[in-house]
Write a structure and sequence with these properties.
Chain lengths: 58, 980
């Protein structure tokens, strides 16, 4: 179960700091669609994880 | 620009008809199932999550919180990115136990009907608000486009059309617990329309209003007013609350649960959704700022949430306006259809059926279908009433917050299902109840009816800015009460077992208990009481088919599986609580005496086998070890079986299958009493008896006697609380037959020794008789007496010959020791023997042809080897016809000397061939043979480390060939003088 606890802690950390992360993305001077670029990067990560996953994982 | 009401109504109904058509076509057999079950369709169908938010709500939110509107999309994207640890476990449970809603999951996991009903109440209340939000958006949009159309009429028409659609396509398969292919396809189509329309509008604005990305950037740099909401820092509390609610939505929103889990996606589709769903939401979110800025640039005056309609109207494009209206309609209809469908299932399972349990009806399936359709109608009408009464006065944001903060109260219990087996029903119910009360007092009532309720209590008023505080307070209280109550209250074993079954990575450990019903037929009889004979028969047959069992099943292990499967199937139809009640009541277990029932080892093994690919690290290594030991037991060359205390066979290895001729698949999980008679008696008697070993138990199988040794080890003591026995069965039949043979040989040997003694004792009187007859011949000249004396002498010689043979045979052990053997020429032995036999040729003109090299030598006793040839040639002579030919050939083969004696006699019948070397066995007539000749030959050849082989008949059914193989002797060559 330790892996789930790690995941849980990570998710909690991201959740708590998410407003600050987004604030950083939309700071003055950055292009308006920068949050979407970061989001797209996250989707690519999800795609890559799914692509290399073990078919029996689910 | 405006539209006339008939046009708008026609367009709306036309679109809903198109939706009907998509659903109808998808359910035709001609449309391949793999298209409808394609991951893309599944991912698109998940777009139901966004609902009206995607088209209208997000813009309203963006106007107020800037990029804060993204929280709704990012929250649920997080849930999908975490699918392997968040959604997959729930998918596993919902598939395995046919749990069609979160209320089913709660009722199953916490073994409580109250929990299921409470979830239904909270979800129902929250969903009314969510449905009202959809209806309001559609009615407001219709009112904007057609000012002459009354919003109430629009809302009513819209609701009625949806009742029709949902009842038709959503409640058709309630009898089979199956999926709704048509519905999924229609919802996916809805999402496609939504994404397509928003993307198109964004593109149109970007290209026509701003003239491209660069121009948009320029416009943004020069227009602070337009940028304002997107420049302001995020409102932390609202952002976090909305993100958490959206994250929880994947599990706790009824329509999301239904789409993610109940439509039974393939694991591949679920895997694709981990990135496919965030991508879909990204496509929905991306045009929002562009549309907002477009409205700013065009100076659109409509409320922010209706900008998607205001912009195309400002651009003067009726088709684009109608398309955006359709997008809103499709988003709202999709959410209403799926939510209502899901809620109707919850209401059926957790309010109607517990109050009106199904009694014997002619067609329970049809009854369930109609109840469900009525519930769909009631739900949508209730939502319409709520909308007309309260909802239409509230903003889309307020309605959304009420709904989401309500279902958020289900999150602790839902996470507990997967991650907290210690949580129990008391904790869950009290936590949810506390959360629900706070939700009603701080959010529902202030937003809907008494806005200043909280200010009277000295707290900040409930607004969109402060709602997150109350949502978090309710959630925190809920979690705390859940945790504390669970820790201080006791959990029932039943609930514990369900918790284990649901826990992440846990295997359910069912107990091995005996059912009252002894066969699948009895299942049908028992279930006929609550369900009626027809439904009972159909349900039992369905479960038997699902488990691939024969039509009549009696094995306890399989009956327990059958019971579970029936419960699962009934659960899909009537909810887990009612299913549990029926199964518990009508397919009960026998009362247990004394200790806890044993675990169902066979089931656990099977489940571990299914889990194999998921076991990694230490668990994987342990599983490998388990397999190794299991294989060792299975391949043990001794028959072994293991029997539980209740007589159930738990293991039956390969050797046991070979010995008994009974396949493991037929008996594992069955009781000893179901074995064939002989084995049943033997094993039952032995297992129940006190003896630990039983030797040489005779069992007549297939008409032949078999002997078995049985050994038993009893599993007892603290290490084996479950008890049981291991039984080893040794097949002793071969050994027993060998023993019999040995005893027979021993008897024959004694007879031989006795005969030698007798021969010796008889020899003296016979010599006396021979001497006396000799004397008699000297005493008289009477020819009669002389003749008689001759005959006496002949007979005494005959006696002597017999006695000599007997004594030779008996003496066969007393030969010259092997180390005193000398080189013997086989050719000489053969010639000597032929000479001896020629003396008594009896005038039959037999010929002997010898073809044996002179240098064929063996080490041995010449006298005895001669005896071998005399005996063999005498047999050949006796068998040969007159003027026959006996051929003797000799040759060398590698290190062996081979002698073959071939006659032209009548041959030896097959049935006698096996016995010819046995002492006293003869095929010759009376007074012609003693039956010791070949036996003697055999022993002499053995003494010389040789081998004898008899082939008969050789050709044309005649002739016998005796083949002797003796170690050849090779004289050492003379040493040469190397010094010469």
């Amino acid at each position: 179960m330790y892996i789930y606890r790690l995941v849980f802690l990570l998710v909690l950390a991201i959740y708590i700091f998410s407003p600050n992360i987004l604030d950083w993305w939309i700071r003055p001077g950055s292009i308006w669609y920068s949050p979407f670029l970061a989001w797209a990067a996250l989707i690519m990560l999800g795609f890559w994880l799914e692509w290399r996953r073990d078919p029996n994982e689910f | 620009m405006s539209f006339s009401p008939p046009v708008l109504v026609t367009v709306s109904l036309g679109y809903l008809l198109l939706l009907f058509a998509v659903a109808w076509v998808s359910e035709r057999p001609r449309v391949p199932s793999r298209w409808v079950r394609h991951p893309l369709v599944y991912v698109l169908s998940l777009g139901v999550f966004a609902g009206i938010w995607a088209v209208y709500g997000a813009l309203g939110m963006a106007d107020q919180f800037g990029f804060g509107y993204l929280a709704y999309y990012i929250g649920i994207s997080g849930a999908f990115l975490l699918a392997p640890v968040l959604l997959s476990p729930v998918l596993r449970i919902s598939r395995a136990y046919q749990l069609t809603s979160l209320a089913d999951v709660f009722a199953f996991r916490y073994r409580s009907q109250v929990a299921g009903t409470l979830v239904t109440v909270i979800s129902g209340a929250a969903i009314l608000s969510l449905l009202s939000m959809q209806i309001k958006a559609v009615a407001d949009a219709a009112a904007l486009l057609a000012p002459d159309l009354s919003p109430s009429v629009a809302a009513t028409l819209f609701s009625l059309a949806l009742i029709l659609f949902t009842a038709l396509f959503g409640a058709r398969d309630s009898d089979s617990g199956g999926t709704h292919q048509g519905l999924v396809a229609a919802i996916a189509f809805d999402s496609l329309v939504k994404v397509g329309a928003l993307t198109l509008l964004g593109a149109v604005i970007l290209l026509t209003v701003f003239g491209g990305l660069d121009d948009l950037s320029t416009w943004l740099a020069t227009n602070d007013r337009g940028k304002m909401p997107f420049r302001q820092p995020l409102h932390d509390g609202s952002w976090r609350a909305l993100m958490l609610m959206a994250f929880a939505g994947a599990l706790v929103l009824p329509h999301m649960y239904h789409m993610i889990f109940s439509e039974q996606p393939t694991p591949r589709a679920m895997a694709k959704a981990t990135w496919g769903m965030p991508l879909q939401l990204l496509l929905l979110a991306l045009p929002v700022p562009v549309i907002y800025w477009g409205a700013q640039a065009l100076g659109v005056t409509s409320p922010a949430s209706l900008h998607v309609l205001g912009i195309p109207m400002a651009l003067g494009s009726p088709s684009l306006t109608l398309l955006m209206y359709i997008a809103g309609l499709s988003a709202a209809s999709a959410l209403i259809i799926v939510s209502t469908l899901s809620l109707s299932g919850m209401l059926l399972h957790h309010t109607v059926l517990p109050l009106y349990p199904p009694r014997e009806r002619s067609d329970i399936y049809s009854w369930l279908r109609w109840v469900r359709r009525s519930l769909i109608a009631v739900t949508i009408l209730a939502a319409l009433l709520f909308h007309e009464w309260i909802g239409k006065e509230l903003s889309l944001g307020a309605l959304g917050i009420i709904a989401l903060s309500g279902v958020l109260q289900l999150l602790p219990g839902a996470l507990g299902v997967i991650y907290w087996p210690e949580g129990n029903r008391q904790g869950l119910i009290s936590g949810m109840a506390a959360g629900m009360v706070l939700w009603i007092v701080t959010l529902v009532v202030p937003f809907s009816t008494v806005p200043d309720l909280l200010t009277h209590l000295g707290m900040p008023a409930a607004t969109l800015e402060t709602a997150h505080i109350y949502a978090f307070v309710a959630l925190t209280v809920n979690v705390s009460v859940f945790a504390l109550t669970s820790m201080v209250s006791t959990t029932t074993p039943d609930e514990d077992s369900a918790a284990q079954a649901c826990s992440m990575g846990a295997l359910s450990r069912p107990q091995r208990r005996e059912l009252l019903a002894g066969s699948s037929d009895e299942f049908r009889h028992q279930l006929a009481i609550p369900l009626g004979a027809n439904v009972a028969r159909r349900e039992v047959d369905r479960a038997l088919n699902a488990l691939k069992l024969p039509p009549v099943e009696y094995r306890p292990y399989q009956l327990r599986r059958l019971r579970d499967q029936i419960e699962v199937n009934l659960s899909g139809m009537m909810g887990p609580s009612v299913a549990q009640d029926i199964v518990k009541h009508y397919l009960g277990f026998k009362p247990q005496a004394g200790r806890d029932p044993a675990q169902d080892i066979h089931y656990i093994e099977k489940a571990l086998g299914d889990y194999q690919s998921q076991l990694t690290g230490l668990a994987g290594e342990l599983d490998n070890l388990r397999r190794h030991y299991r294989q060792t037991l299975q391949n043990l060359p001794i028959a072994a079986c293991s029997v539980g205390d209740d007589g159930e066979i738990l293991m039956w290895n390969h050797a046991m299958q070979a010995v008994t001729g009974i396949e493991a698949d037929d008996v594992v999980g069955a009781r000893l009493s179901t074995l064939p008679d002989q084995w049943r008696q033997l094993l039952e008697d032995f297992v129940l008896g006190d003896e630990v070993h039983r030797y040489k138990h005779r069992l007549d199988l297939r008409g032949r006697p078999h002997w078995f040794n049985l050994h038993k080890s009893t599993l007892s003591g603290p290490e084996h609380p479950e008890g049981g026995n291991i039984v080893l069965v040794e097949d002793q039949t071969e050994t027993r037959l060998l023993e019999d043979e040995l005893i027979h040989s021993e008897r024959l040997a004694s007879v031989g020794r006795l005969a030698a003694g007798v021969a010796h004792e008889i020899g003296n009187p016979v010599t006396g008789i021979s001497s006396l007859s000799q004397n008699l011949k000297l005493e008289t000249d009477d020819p009669d007496i002389l003749d008689t004396a001759d005959q006496i002498q002949q007979q005494t010689r005959r006696i002597s010959r017999i006695l000599q043979s007997l004594m030779n045979f008996a003496r066969s052990g007393n030969h010259a020791p092997a180390n005193r053997y000398e080189a013997v020429s086989l050719r000489r032995c053969v010639d000597e023997s032929v000479n001896l036999l020629s003396l008594s040729g009896k005038g039959r003109h037999l010929s002997y042809e010898t073809d044996c090299p002179d240098d064929l030598l063996v080490l041995g006793d010449e006298q005895r080897l001669e005896q071998v040839f005399v005996n063999l040639l005498a047999n050949a002579r006796d068998a040969s016809p007159d003027e026959g030919c006996i051929r003797i050939s000799g040759k060398r083969e590698a290190y062996s000397a081979i002698i073959e004696i071939l006659d032209e006699g009548s041959g030896i019948p097959d049935d006698q061939l096996d016995h010819i070397f046995e002492p006293f066995y003869t095929t010759k007539g009376p007074n012609r043979g003693t039956g010791l000749g070949l036996s003697l030959v055999y022993s002499i050849v053995e003494e010389h480390y040789g081998h004898i082989q008899v082939d008969s008949p050789v050709a044309d059914g005649r002739g016998t060939r005796v083949r002797l193989r003796l170690p050849a002797y090779e004289p050492e060559s003379e040493p040469t003088d190397n010094t010469a």
